[in-house]
Amino acid sequence: MKKDYLTDFYPYKRFSAKKVDRIFWRLKNQTAKLTGDLTARYKVALLMRLSGHGHELINLHLIEDGVFYAIALRNHKGFLFSEFCFNQAWLVTSISAPTKQCKTLSQIPGFKLLVIGDEKTNNSWYLKNAQFLSIDNQKNLGFKSYYSTPFNSYTRKNIGYLYAIKNGAQFIYDTDDDNAPTIGLESYFNFNKFYTGLVYDHTVTDRIINPYAHFGQPLIWPRGFPLDEIKNTYNNTYLLGAIKTSIVQQGVVNGDPDIDAIFRLTKKLKDEQIDIYFDDSAPSFQIPLYKMSPYNSQNTLFSYDGFWSLYLPNTVSFRLTDIWRSYWAQRLMWLLNE
Q: Which InterPro entries match (predicted)?
């Protein structure tokens, strides 16, 4: 809390703490279990404030540490159930001073920026609203994997994943210190269990799908895409309906996207900066079972049910680790019907 305003959860708008408190007590005549945590109480009231008009609080539950909140709302259309976790985590590896992108990441409401240090990282690394884990901090966490994780390696992110999970994360956003979203994550990632959307046609014979073609760039392909399939014609056939949200969601990156070395060597002019933009009007789509598409660690959201697939193998190169992760994870998703 800062003076009389609640700004830590929703910094782009200011709400009088007294007004939020009145909202809370007006709702409290419904069933509510509270921890007595004043900050948590304000946050719950603010969630109700942001949920819109015409909703009635049916049940509100706070876990004892004040981290996870479950709110059931009712409106004229029936029942809605919404879950919020204020301990969601950002993962980013940095070996330099805080970047402009890191500062942007640290200001995203509802997420915690977690920076995993390495031998080249200055122990004085600091950024407001971010948490930095030095090598000593990582060792003191007590994870056995600390001793099998090499230094000067991108796979030190694995320690960060474990730390976020241990501290109650429900979503982990995987990114790098040179990437930052230009719009709110809720605009292109789905945080609900189910939604109405597109699924790529499972009857198409192609086994590997090039997502860049769907987003308006059919002549480029992502890192990890099989070269013997780059000449295949993209089939714009989808099924529309209610679907379960994927446990791993990948977003495209404008400017210098994650394209492979062959494209850079053959298509990029020597002194020219790559500047590619995707079609922002193209809707998201889901990869069906028994199809695959490589995904990276630059703009990727993992939900709680997908945390088992976070592990980055440390026996391969920096440019391969997240790609191998994406392929073996998708193969296991088939077995789990995810």
A: STL-like (IPR005049)
Alpha-carbon Rg for the chain, nearest whole angstrom, is 22
> Which residue's structure tokens are 């990156």?
253
Q: How far apart are CA 46 and CA 9, in angstroms?
A: 9
Pair 196, 240: CB distance under 8 Å: yes
Cα separation, 123 vs 164, in Å, equals 20
- Relative to beta strand 88-93, strand 171-175 is parallel
Over the chain (338 residues), what is each successive 10-residue block's mean pLDDT?
A: 31 43 47 40 47 40 33 33 48 78 83 89 87 93 93 93 88 86 77 89 91 92 92 88 93 87 79 86 92 93 94 92 96 92
- Taking the alpha carbons of 41, 44, 50, 53 in that order, is the dihedral positive or negative? negative
Q: What is the pTM of this model?
A: 0.74
**Beta strands 111-116 and 130-133: pairing type?**
parallel
CA distances from 162 to 19, 110, 141, 144, 151 (A): 39, 19, 10, 11, 17
